[in-house]
Design a protein that fits this description.
With 451 residues, this protein is α+β, with helices and mostly antiparallel strands. It has three domains: 147 residues, Beta-Lactamase (2-Layer Sandwich), CATH 3.30.450.20; 81 residues, Helix Hairpins (Orthogonal Bundle), CATH 1.10.287.130; 148 residues, Histidine kinase-like ATPase, C-terminal domain (Heat Shock Protein 90). Helix content is 53%, strand content 16%. The protein contains nine helices and twelve strands. The strands form three sheets. It has a five-stranded antiparallel sheet. A five-stranded mixed sheet has the order 7-9-10-12-11. A two-stranded antiparallel sheet has the order 6-8. The protein is rod-shaped and about 150 Å long.
Length: 451
């Protein structure tokens, strides 16, 4: 098994195919030899049977006939013996005294068996067939030499042609395996180049044939594209995360160094407030980063169960009783969706946080059912500066921010809307941003979920 495991795939295919072909050739040669012998013996027995029938007819005409002649090819001699196994007559050259068969063989021949013997005079193989004529028995002796000679010729042909056929089969299998596996070798070399140089602008060679190796190369290249894309996003994500974390950490360090130099005084209260604000920003950023990491790690379907979206929104709105602007819930009917309660809470919280940070005077959260489209709608509206139409797609990119009014100093991490979009998609929903219908400044964020 160790030796087998060390062999190349091409060698193993050649060995297996050649071994199977060798077994097939050997089996076929044995069958051909046996069938050829069987066919030749049938021809010989048929000739002997015709001779026996002719002799029996002669005996019926003249029971005292003593001299009979072979009338078919291959018959060498004929004997007529009585019930006491005594020779009554025969063909010229046949033993006139002793039967060609012994007592046991005569009993078997009279029962219908064909008996193979060796001529005691010339030591040639012979075959004896018996036919009854009253109480007498006619023994017809045929020569097996021609049968054996034919079998010897066939055996020699098999011994010469069989190994040649096996050798040709082995060479053909080796060449075909080499040609078939050449694209696999090219794929291996391509993989080695990618390992050495990286994924950037490097892909596996795709063979021109439309076989399984072609489909494998296409599938592997698609996988490499996804890995390359994921790697790029990961590098960007790590760089952006490090950049975002650097700002509040640097601010905390400066504030603590200043506090260390000036010592305790009346300004410590404001310093603690500033530090707590930076800590809150760090906490929100870390929470958003963990949420995105969990989403990227597992793209499986979320835990699904019936959720009363209107009651869920009501519970979330209660948390904003002391927000900088009032947050009101507008719900006219019960709304039930199938989804993950924790993920749905995260959608509502992120949209409401975003609206509260940028609203001028109020925020409204509306939950309703679009019966025509069989979907539930979560609509969060603020009266802030809004988002320009040409920027509304880009705000779903991670860490993307607009102008100063929506910078990190306002408390946002640039991840909230990206998280909302990912969670909505895992629920089979969508999120869209649009202007307010009344023409007033502000932004409407609408999440549509299957109901």
């Amino acid at each position: 098994m160790r030796w087998w495991a060390r062999q190349s795939l091409r060698a193993r295919l050649t060995i297996v195919a050649t071994a199977i072909f060798s077994i097939a050739v050997l089996t076929g040669a044995i069958l051909v030899l046996q069938l050829q012998r069987y066919a030749l013996l049938n021809v010989l027995d048929s000739s002997a049977q015709k001779t026996a029938v002719s002799v029996v007819e002669q005996l019926h005409t003249d029971p005292n006939v003593r001299d009979v002649k072979p009338i078919s090819g291959g018959v060498t001699s004929i004997q007529v013996v009585n019930a006491q196994d005594q020779v009554l007559g025969g063909s010229p050259g046949a033993d006139p005294v002793h039967p060609v068969l012994d007592e046991d063989q005569l009993d078997s021949a009279r029962a219908g068996a064909r008996i193979n013997i060796t001529n005691p005079v010339n030591h040639l193989p012979e075959r004896v067939l018996a036919a009854k004529s009253g109480t007498n028995t006619v023994l017809v002796v045929t020569d097996l030499t021609r049968v054996d000679d034919s079998i010897v010729v066939l055996r020699r042909a098999a011994l010469i042609g069989g190994p040649l056929a096996v050798l040709l089969m082995g060479l053909a299998t080796y060449l075909v395996a080499a040609l078939t596996l050449r694209p696999v070798g090219e794929l291996r070399h391509g993989a080695e180049d990618i390992t050495a140089a990286g994924l950037a602008d490097k892909r596996l060679p795709v063979p021109g044939s439309r076989d399984e190796i072609h489909r494998l190369a296409v599938t592997l290249n698609a996988m490499l594209d996804r890995i390359d894309s994921a790697t790029r996003k990961q590098r960007t994500f790590v760089g952006d995360a490090a950049h975002e974390l650097r700002s509040p950490l640097a601010s905390l360090r400066v504030q603590l160094e200043v506090a260390q130099r000036i010592g305790p005084d009346t300004s410590w209260t404001s310093l603690v407030d500033e530090v707590l604000e930076d800590v809150s920003r760090l906490d929100r950023l870390v929470e958003d980063l963990l949420a995105l990491a969990r989403l990227d790690e597992s793209r499986r379907a979320p835990r699904m169960e019936p959720v009363e979206l209107d009651k869920l929104a009501a519970d979330v709105v209660l948390r904003y009783q002391h927000a900088t602007v009032p947050v009101e819930l507008i719900s006219t009917e019960p709304v039930v969706v199938t989804g993950d309660p924790d993920a749905l809470v995260r959608i509502i919280v992120n949209l409401t946080d975003n609206a509260v940070r940028h609203a001028s005077s109020r925020v409204s959260v509306r939950v309703e059912v679009d019966h025509a489209a069989s979907r539930a709608l979560l609509i969060v509206t603020d009266d802030g500066p809004g988002i320009p139409a040409d920027e509304r797609e880009r705000v779903f990119d991670r860490f993307y921010r607009l102008e100063q009014s929506r910078s990190r100093e306002s408390g946002g991490s640039g991840l909230g809307l990206a998280i909302v979009q990912d969670l909505a998609r895992t629920h089979g929903g969508t999120i869209t941003l649009r202007d307010r219908a009344d023409g007033q400044p502000g932004l409407v964020a609408e999440v549509a979920l299957p109901s």
